[in-house]
Design a protein that fits this description.
This protein is α/β, with parallel strands linked by helices. It folds into 3 domains: about 1-105, Cobalt-precorrin-4 Transmethylase, domain 1; about 115-215, Tetrapyrrole methylase, C-terminal domain (Methyltransferase, Cobalt-precorrin-4 Transmethylase, Domain 2), CATH 3.30.950; about 225-284, no CATH class. The protein is built from 11 helices and 10 strands. The chain has helices at about 20-25, 35-45, 60-75, 90-100, 115-120, 140-145, 160-170, 195-200, 225-250, 255-265, 270-284; strands spanning about 1-5, 30, 50-55, 75-80, 105, 130, 150-155, 180, 190-195, 210-215. Strands 3-2-4-1-5 form a 5-stranded parallel beta sheet, sandwiched between helices. Residues about 220-225 have low confidence and may be disordered.
């Protein structure tokens, strides 16, 4: 009895393990990110009709008590759409809740896209980090990339944001090596190694599929680059202050100014909000 986290194939169905098949077949309940995806998998594995509940960001809080109650009575298999559940989804919260309730948790070995991509990159992996999805705003994304340059880092990204993410990575680290894999383990898998700009050019339109990219670790900046970066940072700060002053002159509220600048990729909204307040104080 308890929760059993079951990795599912990233694309190639033959990547399912025998133990995973047994667990899915024997489970009294399957908890899935998307029940439609899981039913297709069960049909492909010739597993009969199973009871499936959905569990995702929007219902995690309300669904957790009922899931744990079922886990007290029998094995509950937890799956995501692909790969290992609990990575970039709310599964980790379910584990924490189960631990607190005294319910056993087991995780089966199996596919994880970030591990496969890291190994494929050929970069030094004696120490590396999985960073998940980058921030959505341009300024916050560039800041996150700069912060992570000290070690090899693996990122996920959605197809409709991959070009913007690579463009921001190119701005943050134009010469850093990047390895990208699209549609890992699937029929049209694509692997690209080069700078962020090289990789961006190699992705064909229309952009489809799932993306994982690995940024090689190393020194964040050389002495010369640090000086250039400091000058660029000062220029960015001055430009933001000028934009704030112009919007203040238009009579916009602090909140409206922070939102507009965040939407333009100038940084995180909460930081911009504080900066607008500072500019107001200086003008007072």
């Amino acid at each position: 009895m308890g929760l059993v986290f079951v990795p599912t194939p990233l694309g190639n169905l033959r990547d399912i393990t025998l133990r995973a098949v047994d667990t899915l077949r024997d489970a009294s309940l399957i908890v899935a990110e998307d029940s439609r995806v899981t039913r297709r998998l069960l049909n492909a594995l010739a597993i009969g009709t199973k009871e499936i509940w959905t569990y995702h960001d929007h219902n995690a809080r309300t669904a957790t008590p009922a899931i744990l109650e079922r886990a007290r009575e029998g094995d509950v298999a937890v799956v995501s759409d692909a790969g290992t559940p609990g990575i970039s989804d709310p599964g980790s919260a379910l584990v924490a809740a189960a631990r607190e309730a005294g319910i056993g948790v087991e995780v089966l070995p199996g596919p994880a896209a970030f591990v496969c991509a890291a190994v494929l990159s050929g970069f030094d992996l004696r120490r590396f980090a999985f960073a998940g999805f980058p921030p959505r705003s341009g300024g916050a994304r560039r800041a996150a990339f700069r912060e992570a340059l000290g070690e090899t880092t693996v990122w996920y990204e959605a197809p409709h944001r991959i070009r913007a993410a690579l463009a921001d990575l190119a701005a943050a680290a134009p010469d850093r090596r990047v390895f990208l894999v699209r549609e890992l383990s699937k029929l049209h898998e694509q692997q690209v190694l080069g700078t962020a700009a090289d990789v961006n050019r190699a992705i064909a339109d229309p952009i489809r599929g799932e993306f994982v990219f690995v940024v090689e670790g190393g020194a964040r900046e050389s002495a010369g680059a640090a000086a250039d970066g400091g000058a660029a940072s000062a220029q960015d700060d001055a430009a933001i202050d000028a934009a704030i002053d112009a919007l203040l002159a238009e009579g916009l509220s602090t909140s409206a100014i922070a939102k507009r600048l965040a939407d333009e990729g100038r940084g995180e909204r909460r930081h911009l909000y504080a900066r607008v307040i500072e500019r107001r104080a200086q003008d007072a």
